[in-house]
Amino acid sequence: MPFNSLSFLVFFPLVCVLAALTNAAPFRAMEREKRMRIRQILLLIASYVFYGWWNWKCCFLMLGLTLTAHFCALHMDGRRRRLALSVGVVLPLLILGIFKYFNFFVDSFCALFGIARAGTLSILLPVGISFYTFQSLSYTIDVSRGKLRPETDFVKTALYIAFFPQLVAGPIVKAGDFIPQLHEERTVTAEGLALGVQYFAFGLFKKIVLADNIGVFVDAVHAAPAAYSSPTLLLMAYAYAIQIYCDFSGYSDMAVGCARILGYELPRNFNLPYLSRNVSEFWKRWHISLGAWLQDYLYIPLGGNRKGKARTYVNLLITMTVGGLWHGAAWTYVAWGALHGAALCVHKLYATWRKKRGLDRRGPLWTAVSVFVTFTWVSLCLVVFRADSIGKAFSIIAAIFTLQSGLHFVSFWAVTALILTALCSLAAILRSRKNGARLDGYYPTVDLSGFRGLTAFFTFVGLTLCLAYTGQSPFIYFQF
User: Fold this and answer.
1) Contact assessment for residue 241 and residue 276, using Cβ atoms and an 8 Å cutoff
2) CA 252, 253, 259 angle in degrees (round to 5)?
3) Who's near 466: CB < 8 A, 6+ residues apart?
4) What's the CA gap between 373 and 284, in Å, rounded?
């Protein structure tokens, strides 16, 4: 049930109304804990309806992962701790590997050793499996580390893993950030509604106006890259960077908005990543929840930067390569992750070299050039991410730098989105300086209690509906 579908526009208001009714007179006489439990059961049922709308059979898979995490966490004590931790980590990874990577690994093995394969196993890829698998792992590992007490109430564990706003495309929420909210009375409020509906509208604009319209241009050029000139291919690379950002951050904005309406808070997943001055900064601003997950549960356990320089670079490469593979069963994703890992290693070496020579001071021109170079690098890496094969990706990149002749296609939506992204980023910088606060996302919210705020909001909604792409365009990250 995508956020940009009519079914969701019926489903979500119904859930909000039912959640709000738990504050009505008949429920107020109940004990606080009982009232909270009724509301959480309602949200859990809604979450399984939301997920089952795509394929009801996959609800059993999510339920199985939830039961595994819940009971392993409950037995994380004494001599059973090691067994419980092993089952709670290995079983979800094994399930993820079978559903998402089985054919990929078998095909790669056969290709490497020249073995003929009769056919492939037909396995349905459950939407969002990578996201809720990582959340179940987060819960199990945090309990084993003593960061979180095991949750005795299965409903709370299940709602943490299945909470529908972020279920299929994140952000990946750590158990320690969400489960404590389930012990507080959270419900629909006027303030949450005013903020949440604006976050949702802002994300919807990014998705159906910017990302989907840019996608028409990107798909056309990617389908026949040999027919287009180098400037058009470069514009396509920049345009896809904007498309995937608007698509994925748009979903995250809508997820944050839906959760806020229901009374819950999700972490922000993007923080103006294309203003990053280097690759290290980029990964603190892009898909923040995945980066934090990989750091806490992979990079640091591997040794992080505590075991010497050489080991640090190896750990970075492993972490980013696994992060690439997490996105899907294809060598293009592996290559994309490895390229970012290599870039992080190069930047770490460069930063160390500059620091030793006292070259840390940077002016506005240096910052502008650094932002442009970083954005260009990220865009070229996304050519690899988007391509059908590594060979096709590098042929496109080679065509960009060899001044290939061909058709010139200046997409109105691509240029508009690039300009709009730059203007919004500038507005966010100016606003942060005016308020004396650090740069932290960009949500242009208004006061909906006044006439001017309502006028501005409904004008924005009207423009979104008028400019929206009318074709079918699923969220890019649904496949992961």
Assistant:
1) no
2) 90
3) none
4) 17
Q: Return the number of other C-beta atoms located less than 10 Å from residue 312's C-beta.
A: 19
DSSP output for 92-147: HHHHHIIIIIHHHHHHHHHHHHT------------TTHHHHHHHHHHHHHHHHTTS
In this structure, what are the phi and psi dihedrals at residue 468, rounded to the nearest 5 degrees?
-65, 145
Omega of the bond leading into 171 within 30 degrees of 0 (cis): yes
User: What are the tokens at 219?
Assistant: 């798909």
DSSP characters over 84-105: HHHHHHHHHHHHHIIIIIHHHH
For 19-61, the pLDDT digits (tens) are 888 877 676 667 778 888 889 999 999 999 999 888 888 889 9
- Positions marked catalytic: 327
pLDDT in tens, 312-369: 889 999 999 999 988 888 889 999 999 999 999 998 888 877 777 777 667 778 888 8
* d(C-alpha 260, C-alpha 266), whole Å: 8
Q: Which helix (H) or strand (E) holds 205?
A: helix 190-205
365 burial (CB, 10 Å; 0-12 / 13-18 / 19+) is: exposed
Tokens of 453: 């705020």
Question: Rounded to whole angstroms, how far apart are CA atoms 84 and 55?
Answer: 30
Counting other chains too, the contacts that 385-391 makes at CB distance below 8 Å and 24 or more residues apart are 385/244, 385/327, 385/332, 385/333, 385/336, 386/218, 386/222, 386/240, 386/244, 386/332, 387/222, 387/332, 388/332, 389/331, 389/332, 390/331, 390/332, 390/335
Between CA 401 and CA 396 the distance in angstroms is: 9
pTM value is 0.88
Question: What is the Cα Rg of the chain in Å?
Answer: 23
Query: Would you say 40 and 153 are in contact if contact means Cβ atoms under 8 Å apart?
Result: no
DSSP state of 295: I
Cβ–Cβ < 8 Å for 352, 280: no
